[in-house]
Amino acid sequence: MDCISQKAVILGAGLLGGSLGMAMRERGLAETIHVWSPRESTRTACAEKAWCDGVFETPEEACQGADLVFLCGPVDKIPPLMETISSTCGEGCIISDVGSTKAGICKAGSRWFPANHPATFIGSHPMAGSEKSGLAYADANLFQGKSCILTPVDSSTEDLARLKKFWDALGMKLFECPPEEHDRIVAHVSHLPHALAAALCNGLATMPAEWKQCAGAGLRDTSRIAAGDPHLWAAIFRENETAFRKSIRLLESSLASMKASLDAPDDHALLTFLETARAYRLQLDDESSCGNSSLSS
């Protein structure tokens, strides 16, 4: 593949950051890959990785001379990182992120990388996370076949095209929408499922402990994402609180409908509820219905 960056920088080498580094090296997308991470243990581990060409003690040092920077920390840590590197990133540098929320992050991007700044910020959200976290679980193929939502605000056509080329080279399906629309969408299709899994596990945690021994694949499949990092998810829920609350109301309404169907004298309403659910779930596996596009409400 064509090299897209002469010097790419990853700030935060956890699951997503480490996977980015591995994927860039495997696909030849960056000539040089530099890393900074807040934990010394992670920096030490990165220094031993074949995909990493340099590890630095500060974000500013890592970003010197970079033309592509990815902010891979928790959503509440990304805006402060922008402020830290804003005076370091120069002409032609694209700064992006992997955060699960976008309105606040893109607002910070416009503040620290305004139109007259030599560098450009463009929001990205690769939908490729896992309930696991940390560099130890990084995977060069983590992004293959997954969706990536871009939320450009003030970027040039050329910069956006370059970032799209990068994510496309990782095998991702690209979508584009305003930051606020992104947050409304992911509140429902990403944040709500996590909350549902957490609520299910919280409820079952009040039941006799030995019940867990009787659980089958259904409970494990449904609850898998509840094993995600609580601190990371608390920050996501808080950052996207308005849209997240609306998604919870949708779930409450759906549960009320199911409960009401049990009160009906026959199974018509219940079957309709379950058939609608089944049809939606089957559509998720229909890859032909997904592709690069702009998202609309």
TrEMBL record:
Q: GO molecular function of the protein, one example?
A: prephenate dehydrogenase (NAD+) activity
Q: Which residues form the Prephenate/arogenate dehydrogenase domain?
A: 6-292
What InterPro entries does the record tag this protein with?
6-PGluconate_DH-like_C_sf, NAD(P)-bd_dom_sf, PDH_C, PDH_N, Preph/Arog_dehydrog, Prephen_DH
In its UniProt record, which GO terms are filed under biological process?
tyrosine biosynthetic process
Q: Which ranges of the sequence are coiled-coil?
A: none
**What are the entry keywords?**
Oxidoreductase
The cross-references to SUPFAM superfamilies, in alphabetical order and at most eight, read:
6-phosphogluconate dehydrogenase C-terminal domain-like, NAD(P)-binding Rossmann-fold domains
**What's one Pfam family the UniProt record gives for this protein?**
PDH_N
Q: Which PANTHER family match?
A: PREPHENATE DEHYDROGENASE (PTHR21363), PREPHENATE DEHYDROGENASE [NADP(+)] (PTHR21363:SF0)
Instruction: Spell out the protein name for this chain.
Output: Prephenate dehydrogenase
Lineage of the organism: Bacteria, Pseudomonadati, Verrucomicrobiota, Opitutia, Puniceicoccales
